[in-house]
Write a structure and sequence with these properties.
This protein has one domain: Aldolase class I (TIM Barrel, Alpha-Beta Barrel). 42% of the residues lie in helices and 13% in strands. 45% of the residues are buried. Bound molecules: iron/sulfur cluster.
Length: 362
């Protein structure tokens, strides 16, 4: 029964003050005016770098303006990539047993995570995984191995697998093998590797907080060795590891000056047994702001939503595609992803299309 004595939604007893909406509206207007995100997109579209202040403003912005930021990032993404989405398939071809101490990684020597550990897979197993990747419509088959850098025997095994996969499938092959020198990169290129991944991971100033067994400079040198060998590079970062906004801007600017081709953005999955097991710093909106920043600072690059997509973006995953143009289909190194069918449906529902392997431009 309706209680006719109840006040209407807009009438308040004399003792209760009606809420004054003015400050909130004023605050939102000021927030929206603080930076014009479309002007940042204009700069990105003519190849101009954002200033540090502008880059920081993208990360500092309130959740209320996230759709405006995504609209600006989408204008840049659409200019370079249309409505295409690239799919990568990741195989962990050698797991665990790593002598390094990357604090985020379940495969490190200091990790107590319960993961499967195995030496380099046989070529036959790797080819079977490449077949799965092809069936999942992946344009790029990414083969990763744990470890600081490959032993001669493992390196030979990788070369053999690459040759076999390349002769059987039209996919691009990318390898992630740890630290490499130019000679190794040249051998990989000769075997048919199209691209090598080696992430800078974070800003130089933050690197010691996440790993002590190799340096930021070691990582940088690998990226430069790969480029010297004439291969394109895939290099990105991991977020949610205690880095500051300044660190994130530093990383984006380092990747811009290296002119890397592909940029995977990983968001920490805090794995029990690793030193970062308790870290919980990310919200879906912060994730999206980081994606927008990288699109605006690296406008023409392939920006990939990598590890942590399902965990951190959750129901906002489709929004990520308005800034990024690439995702992993299938599982990650040691954690599962959602099914390929769910990814296909998400892409289609959001109005995007999967890029075929023979359409890959670089
Ligand atoms: S990220 Fe690579 S190098 Fe670092 S611990 Fe994990 S497997 Fe080893």
């Amino acid at each position: 029964m309706v209680n006719t004595a109840s006040p209407s939604p807009t009438s308040f007893p004399a003792s209760v003050k009606a809420p004054n909406r003015q400050p909130t509206e004023e605050r939102i207007r000021k927030e929206e005016e603080q930076f014009n995100w479309q002007q940042l997109a204009d700069k990105a579209l003519v190849g101009e770098a954002l200033t540090r202040l502008e880059a920081r403003s993208v990360l500092d912005a309130p959740d209320a303006v996230i759709l405006d930021q995504l609209a600006a990032a989408y204008r840049v993404r659409r200019h370079y990539w249309g409505n295409r989405v690239r799919l990568h398939f990741l195989l962990n071809a050698q797991s665990g047993l790593c002598p390094e101490d990357c604090h985020y990684c379940s495969q490190s020597k200091i990790s107590g995570a319960e993961i499967e550990k195995y030496p380099l897979m046989t070529t036959e197993k790797i080819v079977a995984a490449a077949d799965r990747a092809h069936q999942m419509k992946a344009g790029t088959f990414c083969m990763a191995i744990s470890g600081r850098s490959p032993s001669p025997a493992v390196f030979e095994g990788v070369l053999d697998a690459v040759r076999t996969v390349k002769s059987a499938y039209p996919m691009r092959v990318c390898t992630t093998l740890g630290l490499l020198n130019e000679n190794q990169a040249q051998q990989l290129k000769a075997a048919g590797v199209d691209r090598i991944n080696h992430n800078l991971n974070t800003a130089e100033s933050h690197h010691e907080d996440i790993c002590t067994t190799h340096s930021f400079q070691d990582r940088l040198s690998t990226v430069q060795a790969v480029q010297a060998a004439g291969l394109t590079t895939c290099s990105g970062g991991i977020f949610g590891m205690g880095e500051s906004d300044e660190d994130i801007v530093d990383l984006a600017m380092s990747l811009r000056s290296l002119n890397v081709t592909s940029v995977p953005l990983n968001f920490l999955i805090p794995i029990p047994g690793t030193p970062f097991a308790e870290r919980d710093e990310l919200t879906p909106q912060r994730w999206l702001r980081i994606l927008c920043l990288f699109r605006l600072l690296l406008p023409a690059q392939e920006i990939r939503i990598a590890g942590g997509r399902e965990v951190h973006l959750r129901s906002l995953q489709p929004l990520g595609l308005y800034a990024a143009n690439s995702i992993f289909v299938g599982d990650y190194l040691t954690t599962p992803g959602q099914t390929a069918q769910q990814d296909f449906a998400m892409i289609q529902d959001a109005g995007f299309v999967i890029e075929n392997a023979d359409e890959l431009s670089d």
